[in-house]
Amino acid sequence: MMVKTLKTWYFIHKWTSLVCTVFLVLLCITGLPLVFRDELAVLLGEAVEPPETVMGTARVNLQALVDDAQARRPNDHVQFLTLDDEHPTWFVSLAATLTSVETTGIYMYDARTGAFLHAPPANEGVTNFFFTLHTELFAGLPGTLFLGAMGGLFITSLISGIVVYGPFMRRLSFGTIRHTGSGRLTWLDLHNLLGIVTVLWALVVGVTGVINTLERPLFAYWQQTEVAGMLAPWHGKPAPTIVKPMDAVVDTAQAAAPDMVVRFVAFPGTLFATPYHYMVFMRGQTPLTSRLLKPLLIDAETAQLTDARTLPWYLTALVLSQPLHFGDYGGMPLKIVWALLDGITIIVLFSGLYLWWMKRHTSTEQLLADADLTNEVTLSAAQSAIRR
Amino acid sequence: MNIFLSARQIWGVPIVIGVGSAVGLMSALLGDGGWDVLSWFALGAPVTVVIWYVYASLSLASPKMGKRL
């Protein structure tokens, strides 16, 4: 590699890393408890698991759950009815307005008996604190998009890190950690080793994290394009009388996709539905298809199926990005591995910062010479070597 | 004499670990049971490699610790 090319990549690696490091450290630290979010929430009493002894029965009356939740917050609007993907529980969530993104109440019901189980904190509590800090820095959508931009810098830093790894390792066998001289060489070797073995994982978590920050813009885009097209026949019509019981809506969805199960139901007027329809998102039942959603548009007045679509590719990418970012798709051992990789990333971030601070006045050539066996290779030898 | 390592010497292990990580990330998504177990080992490999080399370098740096091995 030419010295000039290497210098450019090194420059990219240095500056993209420096700009995003403080936010990446924050994301890695707040992400750590979020890997164990479900377990933590149960431990803190912020969530409960349904009793295991109940025998399965016919589906509960969903309208009764919605009415119960509505009665608990009479001034709010029911936005979503969600079926948990691990436990037999329904969640009804409400907000001050139909289009608000701030949930005011969540109520959990046993899917076998209809019994009210728990009201998890909607906007407070330890897990919500970490989640809000991790996803939006307590700054709403602008915070989320800002973190997405930092994620973009992180990805650039990882790619440039791979490029500069080669020249820095041309005289050191893989995994060498030198303990000679100053601690700086030890930290340089650790930065290189820890960085290169975790880089693919970090790239995937970085890219999927950036995709997740685009959730709201992507759903809004879908609303304005595909959903708006489906809505054309309803243009200018008065607001519908909402069908009750809403069980009819779920029955229609189930009949339209018999081999799938309900993931969530968005109520008419919410951001995931239309003013005239319920949107029922169905999911498959195998490990892979359970991540894929099928949206069914169901008329709010008649409970008849209006349209069934496949999710556009960008929303499929979004829903597949969620498990790959959170690491919650392979049981507890995978979560532990995820946490360890997260910890290694924190060490890479801090060692990178330390290396920059120690050698901030040093040229790239000198750094390269240092990376080689220092007492044998002089500056000029290193320069002529890279020019080859 | 070529004093520099070959591309294979530099990139061999990182590429094997990278491909393994990709397999691990995908496998738990594709299935349960054995697929999950595969992901634990494939993604656990980078962590094991780090622990291995850090431990080896520490035992080299302090002979006392090496003897205890």
Report what the structure shows.
The complex is a heterodimer of chains A (388) and B (69). Chain A has 12 helices and 8 strands. Chain A has 388 residues and is α+β, with helices and mostly antiparallel strands. Chain A has 2 domains: 3-38 and 138-212 and 331-387, no CATH class; 52-129 and 215-326, no CATH class. An 8-stranded antiparallel beta sheet of chain A has the order 4-3-2-1-5-6-7-8. Chain A is elongated and about 75 Å long. The relative contact order of chain A is 0.13. With 69 residues, chain B is mainly alpha-helical. Chain B has one domain. Chain B has helices at 7-30, 34-61, 63-68. In chain B, helix 1 (7-30) runs antiparallel to helix 2 (34-61). In chain B, 23% of the residues are buried. Residues 65-69 of chain B have low confidence and may be disordered. At the A-B interface, helix 6, helix 9 and helix 10 of A face helix 1 and helix 2 of B.
Summarize the topology.
The complex is a heterodimer of chains A (388) and B (69).
Chain A: H1 3-35, H2 37-43, H3 62-72, E1 77-83, E2 89-95, E3 103-110, E4 116-118, H4 126-136, H5 140-168, H6 183-213, H7 215-230, H8 247-256, E5 261-266, E6 277-283, E7 293-299, E8 305-308, H9 313-326, H10 331-358, H11 364-371, H12 379-387
Antiparallel strand pairs in A: 1-2, 1-5, 2-3, 3-4, 5-6, 6-7, 7-8
Chain B: H1 7-30, H2 34-61, H3 63-68
Helix pairs in contact in B: 1-2
